[in-house]
Amino acid sequence: MSKARFEQLREQLDQVNLEILEVLNRRAELVSEIGLLKNGKTTERFDPIREKEMLDKVVAANEGPFQNDTIRHLFKQIFQASLNLQEEEKKSLLV
Amino acid sequence: MSKARFEQLREQLDQVNLEILEVLNRRAELVSEIGLLKNGKTTERFDPIREKEMLDKVVAANEGPFQNDTIRHLFKQIFQASLNLQEEEKKSLLV
C-alpha cells in the first residue's frame, strides 16, 4: 500500500475521532439541559427505564460493523459518564 | 417546564444517540480498512504510540462539558472495541 494512502486514512481517523468528541459533548450538554428542566437543578437521577428505551432504539438502528453487545457496552459507558458529569455539576453548585 | 419541551429534548437526545452510533460504526469501518491495508489482513495490532497520539489530539480539541479524563476513558473503550472487532473479523476469516 502507498504511504500516502495510509496517511490519508489516518487523517480520516483523526477527523472521525473529533466528530465523536463533538457529538459526545453535544450529548452531555443536552443531558444537562434536560436535567435542569426536569428538576430545576443539574442532577438527573438514573432512570433505568429511559436508559433501556434509549439503548433499544440505538441497537434497533445498528447496522454494524460493531455488534449490538459492543454498542450496548459503549453507550452504557457514555450514559455513566453523563451521570458522573451531572454529579460533578451538582457538587460544584453546592460549594 | 412544559411537557412538550421535555419531549422535544428527549427526541433530540435520541437523535444524538443515533449520530453517535453512526460515527462509531464509521470509525470501525475505517479502522478495518486501515488494518487491511497495513497487514493484508483485518487485524491491526495494538499500537500504544498511535493510540496516545490519537488521544492527545482528541483531548487537545476538547472544550467540554466532558472533562479530559472522561474523554480519555470513553475513547479508550472505543479503541478497545475496535481491536475486539478486528479480532472477531480475523477469527471469522480463519473458520
UniProtKB/TrEMBL annotation, chains A, B:
<feature type="domain" description="Chorismate mutase">
    <location>
        <begin position="1"/>
        <end position="90"/>
    </location>
</feature>
<protein>
    <submittedName>
        <fullName>Bifunctional 3-deoxy-7-phosphoheptulonate synthase/chorismate mutase</fullName>
    </submittedName>
</protein>
